[in-house]
Amino acid sequence: MPFLDIDNVTKSYGNVEVLHRVDIGVEEGEFLVLVGPSGCGKSTLLNMIAGLENITGGTISIKDRVVNDVHPSKRNIAMVFQSYALYPNMTVGQNITFGMEMHGIPKPEREQKLAEVAKLLQIEQLLARKPGQLSGGQRQRVAMGRALVRDPDVFLFDEPLSNLDAKLRVDMRTEIKKLHQRLKSTIVYVTHDQIEALTLSTRIAVMNKGYVQQLGTPKEVYDTPANMFVASFMGSPSMNLLPATLREANGGLAAELTGAEGQQIMLNLSQNGPNLRSYLGKPVILGIRPEAITDADGVDRNAKNTQALRNMVHVTEPAGSDTFVETSLSGKACIARMRADVDVHAGQPFDFVVNMDKAVVFDPETEDRIVD
Amino acid sequence: MSGGAQDQAIRTGRVTRTFIYVVLIFFALFYLLPFFIMLINSIKPLPEITGGNMMALPTDPTIEPWKSAWSTAQIGVEATGLKPYFMNSILMVVPAVAISTILGALNGYILTKWRFRGDNLIFGLLLFSCFIPFQIVLIPMAMVLGKIGLAGSLTGLILVHVVYGIGFGTLYFRNYYAAFPTELVRAAMMDGAGFFRIFWRIMLPVSGPIAVVCIIWQFTNIWNDFLFGVSFGGLDAQPVTVALNNLVQSSTGVREYNVHFAAAILAALPTLLVYIVAGRYFVRGLMAGSVKG
Amino acid sequence: MARSDRAPQDMRTTLQNWLPKLVLSPSLAAMMVFVYGFIIYTIYLSFTNSKMLPSNEIIGLENYTRLFGLSAWTTALINLAIFASLYIVICIAIGLLLAIFLDQKIRGEGVLRPIYLYPMALSFIVTGTAWKWLLDPGIGLENTMHLWGWESFKFGWIKDRNYAIYTLVIAAVWQSSGFVMAMFLAGLRGIDNEMLKAAQIDGASNWNLYRRIVIPLLRPAFLSAFVILAHLAIKSYDLVIALTGGGPGRATELPATFMYSYTFTRNQMGVGAASAVIMLMGVAAVMVPYIYAEVKESR
């Protein structure tokens, strides 16, 4: 049985079910990220793990103990809140030790733990200050300190970085990752930021409309999205989803698309399984990540199946390290991600190369990926 | 109220500005005049009032009217001055304010941080109870106070003021706590603090501003109350407002206007002092009384 | 893992779940008895034949029929209509004017604001005492004008049946208009300055700026002011007692004074109760939609 077991959990408010049969097992030391747009139910799920919201159906257990009816303070969990939730009237030190005080831990032990955590997070010089005197990043550290000092079974993070500015967010992201690698703690982390999800997690649960859309490693979620929602939600710019028709070509399968000037384009697929074959002659959605569309020099050396196509360039957006190029395929805008110094001009045709190893195909009706 | 950054946007000409100042000063005089007249006439001997101009400054100032108003003026049947009634008001106001504020704080805490089904209905009912015309409860209240033997007693008046003060107390604290991040309460809960511990350690330490507002509001309202005092104060527990009215309205003997004014100022003194010391909060309290900030 | 081994809720958790409701219950009980219970009882009384003491004899709507047949009650209602409408309109007009003027980066705002507001700290009894004297033609303003040489000046409203009601308006406006000013001022200070700049760049004159943009944005302040003033007007009792005592004659009788005198001095409890119910309905008509919106918004 997993360390933290979310078993068939549902949540309803009155007659409205907002979480539908969520089933996730988290092993000890895992870093699970719940990611999804706002209103997808990720925070509700986190609050249910914390014990801040009732569980309508199913069970949540931590270390083989069902905690459905256990008070939050007795679940041996710690939570870092989006607003940090630091007690404004207490000093940093008091904030961190408040929980231990409530649990009746004697003062010398509290002091010792506080010193350890303060050292770990490099906030020793802040202990006598009030939260109001701290910067955003410092508050973030104190909030983590408050969680760490509890030495809990599971850490819960509720969008902890969303109140920080862009640069600090990246720094703190790295720091959280380092902390996890060092302490090997079990973490459930909620965010709406897919980059945070990809960089931090050992596993991701992508959620939408109260359903877990896909549960997998960052690589699985990114390379083989379970459906079109996951495909477009994860990755920035998001995956190009192009209407195509499945054709037979050179003994394999190919997707037929229309170019910017109405020309027919055939892209040979790497997949050729019976499942996919049953779609022959039918419309499908071809999914290609922007970085899989490049110029001839930018092609991944390990790619086995690359296809060239000539198409009109609409816009180029140099972004420093990369250049984004917009063209159109089958009437949809299609973004390509290229080297910074590629020689490409808006309004002129360009020879694109597509790494078809990375292409995926979706059923336009169910929006699910067609598994080969 | 953060200073007039607005005025960078709105410019006015010299003539308009003069006009604005004239209007503002006119109204300042309008508001000051009655009090000013009360003040100067309260230190005039009676003949100087009846025979002279009320706007004239006293030629022969005296503090006799004040002494009389405080300790010897005839109020009702006895010549006690305002003093005993003033004491009644203090003995009534202090506990009534304390109890209604504490209950208001607890209620506000519960209605925002421990929400349950139907809590909004309860709040709505409490809110409406702030605004009822008290005439609607006058008759049964008189009967109940009579039945439980509290008619004409300070305890009875305290009870009445607490009961009808809970609504406003709750309103203030609820609106204040609503803006207080619930995440803090949740964090404290996960830290293992219980209902009272969270209130005591987390909520109360940050409740200073609203407590001041609430106390000032309740103090002003209860001190200034007349209807309950005249209805339930009997003879022994009359608050100062009722006594002042009796003094001013008494039809026997010579009307000692100077004493009346001194008494009126005395009766107004506590609330005026509160206003002068904590006017800022007073305004905030009035604003919160309008439900929306 | 079997579902059955779910741990029973521990004592502390159970207690914690009940504690909030437990602590709220005394207030709730007090409210239910002393506010809503009493309201229901007064409504009940209004249908009974109660005179000096409450009676259980139900006489239907007779008290209401009698009430509306009484000229004193009709007078009180008409007076309330005059008093309330003038009080509300004038308070809002003065309050808005002062707030807009004070908001023009006025030197001495810190001195003026408290002067406008302090009357709100006084009781209506004190206000009434002061104004009663000021308005008395024999010793007040009229006398002063005469002494200053303006012999023909006449201001005897307080002694005149037809005008006495307006003296109530003067004193009440004096007491409350500063508060309305504070509400509008807070509203004005809350308006986004950039929007005003944008409007000026669009070429709006000061007049148009206020008429078309600022005043419409003050809608919530207007609404709050109206609700507060309306319910104060309906409840007005102390001021009448202190200023005019309801006179001359019955010229300044309001529903609140009517209720008190019929219930406690004329021993017509049934009629008094009926008049209180009508007053409650008046307040409810103003407050209930407002409270409903307030509570709903805070969800």
From TrEMBL, chain A:
InterPro entries (alphabetical): AAA+_ATPase, ABC_transporter-like_ATP-bd, ABC_transporter-like_CS, ABC_transpr_MalK-like, ABC_transpr_MalK/UgpC-like, Mo/tungstate-bd_C_term_dom, NA-bd_OB-fold, OB_MalK-like
Family of the protein in this entry: Belongs to the ABC transporter superfamily.
UniProt cross-references to Gene3D superfamilies, sorted A to Z: 2.40.50.100, Nucleic acid-binding proteins (2.40.50.140), P-loop containing nucleotide triphosphate hydrolases (3.40.50.300)
UniProt KW keywords: ATP-binding, Nucleotide-binding, Transport
One Pfam family cited in the UniProt record for this chain: ABC_tran
Biological process (GO), any one: carbohydrate transport
Domain ABC transporter stretches: 4-234
One Gene Ontology term, aspect cellular component: ATP-binding cassette (ABC) transporter complex, substrate-binding subunit-containing
Name of the protein in its database record: sn-glycerol-3-phosphate ABC transporter ATP-binding protein UgpC
CDD domains to which the protein is assigned, alphabetical: ABC_MalK_N
Keyword Transport: yes
Top-level division of the source organism's lineage: Bacteria
GO MF terms held by the record: ABC-type transporter activity; ATP binding; ATP hydrolysis activity
PANTHER family named in the record: ABC TRANSPORTER ATP-BINDING PROTEIN, MALTODEXTRIN IMPORT ATP-BINDING PROTEIN MSMX
Record keyword ATP-binding present: yes
From TrEMBL, chain B:
Residues that span the membrane, as ranges: 19-40, 90-110, 122-145, 157-177, 198-219, 261-283
One GO CC term, this protein: plasma membrane
Main location, first listed in the record: membrane
InterPro entries for this protein: MetI-like (IPR000515), MetI-like_sf (IPR035906)
Membrane topology: Multi-pass membrane protein
Tree of life domain: Bacteria
Keyword field: Membrane, Transmembrane, Transmembrane helix, Transport
SUPFAM superfamilies: MetI-like
Gene Ontology biological process terms in this record: transmembrane transport
Location of this chain's protein in the cell: Cell membrane
Sequence ranges assigned to domain ABC transmembrane type-1 in this UniProt record: 86-278
Family the entry assigns: Belongs to the binding-protein-dependent transport system permease family.
Listed name of the protein: Carbohydrate ABC transporter permease
Organism, scientific name: Paracoccus aurantiacus
Automatic annotation (TrEMBL), chain C:
Transmembrane segments: 21-44, 76-103, 115-135, 163-188, 209-234, 269-293
GO biological processes: transmembrane transport
GO cellular component: plasma membrane
Entry-linked CDD domains: TM_PBP2 (cd06261)
Bilayer disposition of the protein: Multi-pass membrane protein
Keywords: Cell membrane, Membrane, Transmembrane, Transmembrane helix, Transport
Domain ABC transmembrane type-1: 77-292
PROSITE patterns with a match to the protein in the record: ABC_TM1 (PS50928)
UniProt entry tagged with the keyword Iron: no
Main location: membrane
InterPro entries membership: ABC_transporter_permease, MetI-like, MetI-like_sf
Subcellular location: Cell membrane
Annotated family: Belongs to the binding-protein-dependent transport system permease family.
PANTHER family with a match to the protein in the record: ABC TRANSPORTER PERMEASE PROTEIN
Name this polypeptide is given: Sugar ABC transporter permease
